[in-house]
Amino acid sequence: MAANDNTLESGAASHSQIGMLATVRNRRAIVASVEPFDTPERRFHVVKLEYTDLEGAAQETVVWEIEHGRKLLPPHAISSALPSGPAAGDAWQECMELLAAEWRPLAAGIREVGIPAPTDVDWDLPAGNLVGESRAVMVWLMGEEYVALVPVDGVVKDERLIQVTPQSPPAEVAATLFEKIGGQA
């Protein structure tokens, strides 16, 4: 396997680590566990992946070194790739105070992963050029575009909307936010 087959962003480790975002088999995943496996010739790593999309299996275990085209993005790279605003601590604190109590654990988990604070909470979703009846829990505005976290119940499918529940895994939500916002930073 060629040394450059494992593409890394900005000086990341040479193998997968828990919490890293990875692209494996053309799917985005979070590295959930890494177990070394030694052979007489070399060390391999058995990696458990939790996929962030809804395509195929939700989890998969692979031998990292034999996966062709695998890519890693370390957790700290999420915050540097996303748009930033005012002091993140102050902005997150304000958001936490404005959020309904049931959504605070999800918000805290997203914050811990390094996602910048949302632009607004409890935001009216547009319906065409008008204010709609649906609301977003949190929204990140990027000029004329936006990405919003919305409750699962009754929201129309839209690529700008990420459906969540208060129990949604924060790391998965953060990975999806990174996919949608990170490419526009």
Describe this structure in words.
By secondary structure, the protein is α+β, with helices and mostly antiparallel strands. It folds into 2 domains: about 5-75, SH3 type barrels (Roll), CATH 2.30.30; about 80-180, no CATH class. About 20% of the residues lie in helices and about 35% in strands. It contains 4 helices and 10 strands, in the order ββββββαααββββα. It has helices at about 75-80, 90-100, 105-115, 170-180; strands at about 5-10, 20-25, 25-40, 45-50, 60-65, 70-75, 120-125, 130-140, 145-150, 160-165. The strands form 2 sheets. A 6-stranded mixed sheet has the order 1-6-2-3-4-5. The protein has a 4-stranded mixed sheet with strand order 7-8-9-10. β7 (about 120-125) and β8 (about 130-140) form a beta hairpin. α3 (about 105-115) packs across α4. The longest helix is centred in the last third of the chain and has 13 residues, at about 170-180. The radius of gyration is 18 Å and the shape is elongated. About 30% of the residues are buried. Residues about 1-15 and about 80-90 have low confidence and may be disordered.
